[in-house]
Specification:
By secondary structure, the chain is an alpha+beta fold. It has four helices and twelve strands; from the N terminus they run H-E-E-E-E-E-H-E-H-H-E-E-E-E-E-E. The site of 1,4-dihydronicotinamide adenine dinucleotide (NAI) has 9 residues, from helix 1 and strand 5. Belongs to the non-flavoprotein flavin reductase family. RutF subfamily.
C-alpha cells in the first residue's frame, strides 16, 4: 500500500511532540529554526537527533557549522516558535528573545525549558530530510518547567504540576 503525504501528515498531526528552537553559530553564520522532529537516541554517549528539511533556508548553515543547540520551549513561548517556523529574516527571529552563548558557541535560549548544546556527530539523509545525530556536550534546565506540546496542528501548554484527583 502506498501512503500519500496528506494521509501521513494527518496521522502525524495526532502524534504530540515537544517544540524546540534549534540554533547554530560558527563559520557559516548564525541561524535557527523550529523543530518538532527531535528525539533522544542514546544516553551513552548522550545523543539526540534532529530532522532538518534540506530545502529549508537554514540547511547550508547547519551543514557547515557542525554544531547546534536544541532549545526546548516552555509554555508561553508560542510566538517565538512561530517566528522561527519560517519566512522571517534571521535577525528578526533572534531579536525576539534573550540568548546566552553555549560551550559550542551556539545560541542558548535564556528561558528555555532545557537546552542541549551539541556537536553534530553524524548526518544521514532520508528522503527530503537530513537526520542530524547530535552528541551533547552541555545541558541547562529551567528550575520550574512548564511544557509546550505541538498536537493537532496547534500548541498546548502543560502545567508544572497536575492536581491530584
Ligand atoms: N519534520 C518536519 O519537517 C516538520 C515540519 N513541519 C512544518 O511546519 C508547518 C506547520 O506544521 P503542521 O501544522 O503540523 O503541518 P502539517 O499539517 O503539514 O503536518 C502535520 C504533521 O506531519 C509531520 N510533517 C509535516 N511536514 C513534514 C515533512 N515535510 N516531513 C516529515 N514530517 C512532516 C509533522 O509531524 C507535522 O506535525 C508545516 O509547514 C510543516 O511542514 C511541522 C512539523 C514537523
Ligand atoms: C511547530 C513546528 C515544527 C516544525 N518542525 C520541523 C522539523 O522538525 N524539521 C524541519 O525541517 N522543519 C520543521 N518546521 C519548519 C521549520 O521551522 C521551517 O521550515 C524553518 O524555519 C525554515 O524556514 P525557512 O526556510 O523559511 O527559513 C517546523 C515548523 C513548526 C511551526
Amino acid at each position: 500500500m502506498s501512503i500519500d503525504s496528506t494521509t501521513f501528515r494527518d496521522a502525524m498531526a495526532c502524534v504530540g511532540a515537544a517544540v524546540n528552537i534549534i540554533t547554530t553559530d560558527g563559520p557559516a553564520g548564525r541561524a535557527g529554526f523550529t523543530a518538532s522532529a527531535v528525539c533522544s537516541v542514546t544516553d551513552s554517549p548522550p545523543t539526540l537527533l534532529v530532522c532538518l528539511n534540506r530545502s529549508a533556508s537554514v540547511w547550508p548553515v547547519f551543514s557547515n557549522n557542525q554544531a547546534l543547540c536544541v532549545n526546548t520551549l516552555a509554555a508561553g513561548q508560542e510566538s517565538l516558535s512561530n517566528l522561527f517556523g519560517g519566512k522571517t529574516p534571521m535577525d528578526e527571529r533572534f531579536a525576539a528573545a534573550r540568548w546566552l552563548q553555549g560551550e559550542t558557541g551556539c545560541p542558548r535560549l535564556a528561558d528555555a525549558l532545557a537546552s542541549f548544546d551539541c556537536h553534530i556527530s553524524q548526518v544521514v539523509s532520508v528522503g527530503t530530510h537530513d537526520i542530524l545525530f547530535c552528541q551533547i556536550v552541555d545541558i541547562s534546565r529551567h528550575p520550574t518547567p512548564e511544557g509546550l506540546v505541538w498536537f493537532d496542528r496547534r500548541y498546548h501548554a502543560l502545567p508544572a504540576n497536575l492536581p491530584t484527583v
